Amino acid sequence: MIGWSLMPASLEEMASKGYTKATAKDGNIRKSWDAAKDRCISNYGALPFGPTRKANHAAAVRAASFRTDWAKWRENWAAKMRE
């Protein structure tokens, strides 16, 4: 079969594949994360917490920025899978 290997991929190969996919999607992930902020605030606002908690949450969500370190993810994923 074409594309079939009898040898399973190594953890490093799997981590590299995940890294490649994640970095390719990074822009879309960032946009989706930013687009979800208002929904997050709205959903939290429906909870029975008081106005101070809701205001603190909303401020934190608005101030938060999306950040990823895909190289760190790759290293940590492989290490975790070895456990």
Describe the structure.
By secondary structure, the protein is an all-alpha fold. The chain has a domain at 27-82. 73% of the residues lie in helices and 0% in strands. The protein has 3 helices and no strands.
Record keyword descriptors for this entry.
elongated; 0% strand; 83 residues
Beta-strand percentage? Answer: under 5%
- Poorly predicted runs: none
End-to-end gap: 33 Å
How much helix, percentage-wise, in residues? over 70%
Structural class, by secondary structure, is: mainly alpha
- One letter per element, helices H and strands E, the order comes to HHH
Shape estimate = elongated
Largest sheet properties: none
Mean pLDDT score, rounded?
Answer: 92
Quick gist of this model?
With 83 residues, the protein is mostly helical. It contains 3 helices and no strands. The two termini are 33 Å apart.
Task: Lay out the secondary structure.
Layout (H helix, E strand, L loop, with lengths): L10 H35 L5 H13 L6 H13 L1
